[in-house]
C-alpha cells in the first residue's frame, strides 16, 4: 500500500524543487514576467488577461523581492510537508498558494485559449497541487492513514481531469490534420501524428473519457489507475518534455508528474490487494 505519508512527501519534494527552480538567476529579472507570466494571458478572454496583467504589473517594480518571496513560500511549504510540520496549516497554505498562482501565474491554466490539452499541461500543474493537498488531509484519529473521503476526492478529481481532457480534444484546433501534432514536444513524433491528427485526437478523447467513467464508477479500478499513470507519463514526456526543468525559465515539472501522484492518492492500495484499515465497512463512501 502507498501510505498517505509517502504521497505527502512526494508533494513536498515537488514543492521544494519548484522553490529551488524559482531561485535561478533569470527569475529575478523582467524575463520572468515577460516570458513566463504575461504569455499565460495571451489568447484568453479579456478578464483573464486583465487579471494576469494586473498581477505582473504589481510585481514588476520589485521583481527580485517578489521572486524571493515566491521561492521562499514554496520551499517552506515543501519542507513543512516533508517533515510533517503543522500539517493542516501547511496544507491549507499550499492550497491557497496553489490557487493564487493558478490565477495570477498560470492564467487559469490557459483553459480559455481553445488550445489547451492535458497533453500540454492543462488545467495547470499548480491546480493539481491543490487537489493532492486536499486528498492528503490527515485523519485526526489516525494521522498516518488515509481518510476514505480523501481517497474518494482524489479519485473523482482524477476522473474530472480526464473528462476535461476528453472535452479539450474536441476543440476545433485539434480536429484538423496537423492540430494535435503542434502540441507535441518532439519533432519526430509530431511528424508521425500529423499524418492522422484528427483521428489521434479523437482516440485520445475516447481513452480519456473511458478512464474518467471507469474512475468515477470504480470499474476495474486497479487497472484503470495504472493506465492513467502510464498515460500521464506519456503526456509528461511527449507534450511537456518533463517540464523542461533545465530551461533557464522553467518553474515546475508541469502537470504530468502531478497527475501520477494524484493517481496514487486515488487508489493508494495500488501496490497490493489489501484493503485500507476500516475501509471494508465504508466501501460505499469510496
Automatic annotation (TrEMBL):
Annotated transmembrane regions: 63-83, 95-112, 118-137, 158-177, 197-217, 224-243, 255-271
Lineage: superkingdom: Bacteria
Keyword rRNA processing annotated: no
UniProt keyword annotation of Transmembrane present: yes
Keywords: Membrane, Transmembrane, Transmembrane helix
Protein name: DoxX family protein
Organism: Alicyclobacillus ferrooxydans
Amino acid at each position: 500500500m502507498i501510505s498517505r505519508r509517502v504521497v505527502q512527501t512526494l508533494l513536498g519534494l515537488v514543492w521544494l524543487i519548484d522553490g529551488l527552480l524559482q531561485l535561478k538567476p533569470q527569475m529575478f529579472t523582467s524575463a520572468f514576467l515577460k516570458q513566463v507570466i504575461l504569455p499565460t494571458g495571451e489568447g484568453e478572454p479579456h478578464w483573464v488577461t486583465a487579471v494576469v496583467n494586473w498581477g505582473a504589473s504589481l510585481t514588476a517594480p520589485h521583481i527580485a523581492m517578489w521572486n524571493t518571496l515566491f521561492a521562499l513560500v514554496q520551499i517552506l511549504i515543501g519542507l513543512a510537508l516533508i517533515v510533517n510540520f503543522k500539517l493542516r496549516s501547511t496544507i491549507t497554505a499550499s492550497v491557497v498558494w496553489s490557487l493564487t498562482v493558478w490565477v495570477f501565474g498560470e492564467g487559469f491554466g490557459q483553459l480559455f485559449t481553445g488550445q489547451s490539452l492535458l497533453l500540454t499541461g492543462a488545467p495547470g500543474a499548480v491546480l493539481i497541487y491543490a487537489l493532492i493537498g486536499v486528498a492528503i488531509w490527515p485523519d485526526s484519529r489516525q494521522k498516518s492513514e488515509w481518510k476514505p473521503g480523501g481517497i474518494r476526492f482524489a479519485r473523482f478529481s482524477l476522473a474530472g481531469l480526464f473528462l476535461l481532457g476528453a472535452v479539450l480534444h474536441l476543440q476545433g484546433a485539434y480536429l484538423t490534420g496537423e492540430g494535435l501534432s503542434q502540441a507535441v514536444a518532439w519533432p519526430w513524433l509530431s511528424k508521425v501524428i500529423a499524418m492522422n491528427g484528427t483521428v489521434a485526437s479523437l482516440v485520445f478523447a475516447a481513452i480519456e473519457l473511458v478512464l474518467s467513467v471507469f474512475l468515477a464508477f470504480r470499474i476495474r479500478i486497479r487497472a484503470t489507475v495504472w493506465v492513467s499513470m502510464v498515460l500521464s507519463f506519456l503526456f509528461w514526456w511527449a507534450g511537456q518534455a518533463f517540464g523542461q526543468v533545465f530551461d533557464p525559465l522553467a518553474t515546475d515539472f508541469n502537470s504530468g508528474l502531478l497527475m501520477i501522484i494524484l493517481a496514487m492518492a486515488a487508489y493508494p492500495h495500488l501496490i497490493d490487494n489489501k484493503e485500507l484499515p476500516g475501509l471494508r465497512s465504508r466501501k460505499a463512501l469510496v
